[in-house]
Amino acid sequence: MGQPFHYQYLDVDFGESLQAMTKSLNLVYDSDNLYYWKSIDLSNNTLTGEIPQNMVFLAGLLNLNLSHNHLIGEIPFEIGNMTSLESLDLQMNNLSGSIPQSMSLLYSLEVLNLSYNNLSGSIPTGHQLQSLDDPSIYSGNPNLCGPPLKMSCESPKRDDNNDSNSKHAGDKDNWFYLFIEFGFVVGFLVVFFILLLKRNWRYDYFRMIDSGFNWLHVLTALALERWSAERA
């Protein structure tokens, strides 16, 4: 379980207008359009813990700014449910993990900033995210890869474990063949010295070889004679 998301409620009388940071701009909402303003701006506080998972059900939210805090954990997996979101600013936190693929469903998103966190993996693809092609919105996350960043996700990472296993397997094969060659040499020398020292065995051995050659010669001659007869 992650740490709870801590924040304080602040009761403020906005009066006839309100100045708010949205889409990376300081905008002023007057009394006529303040009713339609749907935004959460908790930036530049000391918020800790993880982003609440329930926040993804705020489907009508237009602006979410949680930047410059101490948030940890991952970006909610179902953040794509916030379909009305036009501006999302999560920069300068300690968020980790990958960027959810569902973020590509934020078709209204015009401003995004995920810089200076600990995010990793490939940046999701999608029509709306591809239009946000400024690499600076992902800067400060050295383990991110894919467009619009220059770091490619296709470069294979060296697996030291596989290399080590392959090396051990190769060593075993080398020892196996070495033992086979050693056994062949030893066997040959044993037979050679036995034949060298035992005259009777040596005669019998060569007599057996001669008989073998004679038998092979007879078989070859008979085969050739049969083959010639069939051809005729």
TrEMBL record:
Pfam families: LRR_1 (PF00560)
Gene Ontology BP annotations: brassinosteroid mediated signaling pathway
PROSITE patterns: LRR
GO CC entries: membrane
Parts of the chain that traverse the membrane: 175-197
GO molecular function: kinase activity
Subcellular locations according to the entry: Membrane
Topology class, membrane: Single-pass type I membrane protein
Alphabetized Gene3D superfamilies for the sequence: Ribonuclease Inhibitor
Family according to the record: Belongs to the RLP family.
Name this protein carries in UniProt: LRR receptor-like serine/threonine-protein kinase GSO1
Organism: Rhynchospora pubera
